[in-house]
Specification:
single chain, eight-stranded parallel β-sheet, TIM Barrel, 35% helix, three-stranded antiparallel β-sheet, alpha/beta
Length: 344
Amino acid sequence: MSGADTGLRLPPPLAAGAAALGTELPVIQAGMGGVATPALAAAVSSAGALGTVALYKSDRALASGLVAATARATPAVFGVNVIPEVAGTLLADQLRAVLDAADRELVVNSYGLPPVPFAREVREAGHLLMVQVGTAEDADAAVAMGARAVVLQGTDAGGHHLGTLPVRQLLARTAERRLGVPLFAAGGVHRGADLLGLAALGASGALCGTAFVATEESGAHPAYRQALTVAGPGDTVTTDRFSIGWPGRVHRVLRSPVTEAAEPLPAQLIAWTTVMGARRPVPRGSAAAPTLEAEGRVDEMARYAGAGVGHVDAVLPAATVVARLRDELRGAIRTDAEAFGGAR
C-alpha cells in the first residue's frame, strides 16, 4: 500500500478495490493521451491512489521512456494505459516496452477489449490486467480473457465512449452478473460521497479523469485547465465532431463553436501540437486534446470533460485532489454510520 497510514477505514467493497490495486484509496486516474504524463501519474500514485501514464500513440522507444520516467518519480504502484483501437500495430511494441521497462508489478489498463494474446502476455508477465468497457457483455468478455479488474465507463464520463448507458445503470446491470472481480465506475465521480454511493451499487472504486486534467502536473494546456474550472453542469455535450484520428466513437467534451455549429465546420488548420516528438498540424475536428505543446485556437480543439465538471473549481496539485477525495470519503462514511455494517 502506498502512502502513510491515514486511518481511513473503507467499507468492504471499497477495501476490496484498494487491495486489488495495491493502493490506499480505490481511485484510478484515467489514462488520458497527452494529458496523463509521468509527472501526473507519479503524483497521484505517491498520494495514495493509482496514477496512470498514457501510451496513446507512442512508439516503443517513447513508451519505454514514459514507463521508466514514471517509475523513477514514484516508489508506488502505477498503471499504464493503452488504447488498442487507436494504437493499431503500435500496440505490440507498446507491450514490449512496458514489459521491458517495468521494475514492479504494474496495472495495465486497456481502453476497450485488447487482443487475447495481449491479455495473455500481460498475465504471464505478472502484471494486473484491467479492462475498460461500456457494456455488461464486454465486462463478461474481459473477465473471460483474464482481467482482474474491470472499469465500467458511463456516458457521463469525459472522452470517447464505449457504450450508451450512464454509469449507474451500467454498474447495476453489470454487478448483478457477479463476475468475481472488482468493478470500478467511470463517469462524473468528483467527491467522496460519489464513491460511497457507487459502492452501494456494487462498485469497488472509481476511475476519474476530469478532476485530474485540472491539476498542476497535468499535460493539459493551461487554457484547457482554466476552462474546466469555470464550466458548469450544462457545459459539456456528447458529440461526434472530433473524429479525425479516432473515428467511430462519440465523445463528451466542453461546448465550443465546433460543437454548437448547426453543421460541421470545415476541417481547416486551427492549431499545431507535438505528437511522438514531431510537430504536427491539428485540423478542426481532430481527436487531439490541447496539451502543453499546443499553439493556436485551443478553444476549438477537443477539450474532453465529464458531466461532473461543475465540481472542478481550481487548478490544484494532484496530491490535493487525492487528499480531498480521501477526506470527503472519510466524512461521508462517518455521516452514514449505518452504511456497510457501520464501517467508520
